[in-house]
Structure formats: C-alpha cells, structure tokens
Write a structure and sequence with these properties.
mainly alpha, Helix Hairpins, elongated, 3 helices
C-alpha cells in the first residue's frame, strides 16, 4: 500500500487496517505451511505495511500529546 494513503488514515481506520493485515498474514502463513509458496512476497509486504501503520499510529499519539 502507498505510504501517503496510509498516513492519511485516521487512527480508527489505521487500527481496522492493522486487523485486516493481521488476518491476511495469518491466512498467508497457513497457506505457506500447506506448501503454497506464492504468498512469500505478500507476507513481506504485509509485514512492512503493518510496521508503517504502527509507526504512523505512534506519531499521531505523540503529536496529540504535545
């Protein structure tokens, strides 16, 4: 997902997106364990998107505290 699109979300939408990414990651890990190795690239993308979302959430929390 694009960084600008993720940064533009409000915190509630970010949390919903995090839940979606966690669910997708679980499904991909399950598929990989079953021998379908097509999901490795998607796993990496999900992990990076999740890290970005957590970073943006933290930025908003710290920005709101100032």
């Amino acid at each position: 997902m694009k960084k600008d699109k993720l940064r533009g979300l409000d915190p509630a939408e970010m949390r919903n997106k995090l839940n979606e990414i966690d669910e997708q990651s679980f499904r991909i890990k399950f598929q990989v364990s079953m021998g379908q190795t097509d999901g490795i690239k998607r796993m990496r993308e999900n992990r990076k998107d999740r890290a970005r979302l957590l970073t943006y959430l933290r930025e908003k929390e710290l920005g709101g505290a100032k």
